[in-house]
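thoughts on both lines:
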Amino acid sequence: MEYLRLGKSGLSISKVVLGCMSFGDPARGTHQWSFGIDESRPYFKQAIESGVTTFDTANVYSLGASEEITGQLLREFAKRDEVVIATKVRGMMGPGPKGVGLSRAAILTQVDESLRRLGTDYIDLYQIHRFDADVPIEETMEALHDVVKAGKARYLGASSMWTWQFAQMQHAADLNGWTRFVSMQNQYNLLQREEEREMLPYCLDQGVGVIPWSPLARGRLTRPAGVEGTARAETDAFTKLLYDHTAEADRGIIDAVGAIAEERGVSRAQVALAWLMRRPAVTAPIVGTTKPHHLTDAVAAVELKLSDEEVTRLAEPYLARPVTAF
């Protein structure tokens, strides 16, 4: 495993981040395919033993159950100061103005709820879960700054939004002496590269670390084009929104991933993740796992170095497409 600074910050994270949306309670929220605590335990043990130190969840995943499981299992397998816990705020957690969004009331209420569920005194990386156009940017940024100054979070991060929105939020922090975002968690993979136009250059210029979600395009990069995926892939409406409309355009990319994997004698997942890890702006991908080999492939991808010719073969079939998931 390798460890890198997250952008220009002093926060060190592992080259593979374990995404914890798969761990929760199927009866809570919209993730009916999630694993309960007993099913989740082997994945946390495997992650820690593989050198993964960074774990990403959100308050809205299984309506808090993911945070509960993440906190409990990290206490079982690691010391608090040896791991980096990242969580998010914005999604609907309950009725009323304190249960959703990025208002001061919501942020200050929800950070305490996340700390309680995680069973920790502080969150290493507290991220906003998309942009909230209904709240003044200054209100959001000052509330987040107060969370940091209170010792409840050590660093701040953001997630998928337009680059101009992200730039405005950073500018508001600079003008007022508030805490800046050190990271951007956005959708970036071989099938969705629109972030290369503005967001990734901006992050490189500003020293913001990038920790992409969906690095394997919800599994589409791990199997031949047209082959049916998991129960999650077939039932998750969000997955269909992200990738179903580009299926034919993706075939050339998926075929290239398969060809290089066969030539190298490695899995498709390793090839797709190795490509992503090579991108200049990327610090570390967030990898979800529902089978042990998912994490094994992610860790192995750290050591897989693609040639310039292989990178070109993977990139050439890409066609511009709509941005999704903002």
